[in-house]
Amino acid sequence: MLGEFELIRHYFAAAACARAGGEVVLGIGDDCALLQIPSGEQLAVSTDTLVAGVHFPDPCNPFLLGQRALAVAASDLAGMAATPIGFTLALSLPSGDPLWLAEFARGLDAMALDCSLRLIGGDTTRGPLSLTVTVFGRVPSGQALVRSGAQVGDLLCVGGVLGEAAGALPLVLRQAEADAHVAEHLLARYWSPQPQLALGEVLRGKATAALDISDGLLADCGHIAKASGVALQIERDRLPLSEPLRRFAGDAEALRCALAGGDDYLLAFTLPPAELAPLQAAGWPVQVIGRVMAGEGVQLIDAAGNEVPVSERGYNHFNA
Ligand code: ADP
Ligand code: MG
After folding, report:
1. Which of 75, 93, 283, 312 is at 20 to 30 A from 123, Cα to Cα?
2. Mutate to test the pocket of ligand 1, among 8, 9, 109, 125 (most ligand atoms within 8 A of CB)
């Protein structure tokens, strides 16, 4: 069995994503990493913890876990329109199983290279399996997309098809089976979220508010509504639903997953109407699902404009 320092050196410091460069002046190996932020830019920081048995099934495929842990954290940089710099990894491990570590590090490295994030440090302890990833990004001063800027008259948009990761949960937990290609598609949406980093950067100076959808569309839109002091109206029939999920779980469940499922890691944002056409013409995945109005809260309406009651609004760890 490897000791703590050999383990860090072998699996993490030696990973391709751990090379210094760009804004990372000094990476793994000293008491702190050193980052050089270009003048006129601000540092964006976010932390996410994944606990075995709470955020992912235990045991699970360590390669996929490495990918997912980093993607979930990187998605917060997308939601802020920040350009990725690097991340730290605080790892609590029940044992130093070399096979597990090698696969975990490989998944982490693959997602880190996809997201242009450098591994700059971390902490390694023995304990129940849990992962904490802190991501660092940069954004021109004043141009981060915060939750509080939505304006009455803006469009409410999302960056793609909703609900697939939540809909994949019965497959993740092996409580259900599906056709091979449907299962593959849905499981990929759970295990390998694709943080919308490029979309976030393109929305700088255009969107008025943004976040990444992690707890479910209704719950997360509620955060924008509250922070901006506005109401958000969502048109049920404009929600981009998943064909594979509809086939697998049915229309009602696909809708429930899209509204309240969580784990999408797509962007939700508010956009002045004039910004829409150029973004769509340039090929960006921008789907209008509703609009910003005076008032408060999030309302779901049908095609006739009548309010649709919703019982379940999203995931909250401390709700009964
Ligand atoms: P210290 O005791 O000074 O906090 P550590 O002994 O915990 O430092 O870690 C030594 C170096 O290895 C530090 O640069 C730290 O950031 C890095 N490190 C520790 N664990 C990890 C990990 N899981 N992934 C990446 N870097 C790590
Ligand atoms: Mg330490």
Report:
1. 75
2. 8
pLDDT digit string, tens, across residues 113-168: 999 999 999 999 999 999 999 999 999 999 999 999 999 999 999 999 999 999 99
Q: Does ligand 1 have an atom closer than 6 angstroms to the CB of 62? A: no
- Domain positions in the chain: 4-140, 154-301
Place of tokens 């973004």: 279
Q: Which residues make beta-bridge pairs with 34?
A: 26
Q: Tell me what pLDDT residue 1 has.
A: 64
Numbered residues of the known binding site for Mg(2+): 31, 46-48, 76, 123, 212, 215
For ligand 1, whether the C-beta of 123 sits within 6 Å is yes
Structure pTM?
A: 0.94
Q: Which two tokens stand for residue 106?
A: 């490989």
The structure tokens listed for 235 are 């048109």
Q: Residues lining ligand 2 (ion), CB within 5 A?
A: 123
Write out pLDDT tens, residues 240-290.
999 999 999 999 999 999 999 999 999 999 999 999 999 999 999 999 999
Residue nearest to atom 7 of ligand 1 (CA): 123
CATH number of this structure's domain 4-140? 3.30.1330.10
Ligand nearest the Cα atom of residue 134: 1
The CATH code belonging to domain 154-301 is 3.90.650.10
Cα dihedral sign for 285, 291, 292, 296?
Answer: negative
Q: How far is the CA of 87 from the centre of ligand 1 (A)?
A: 12
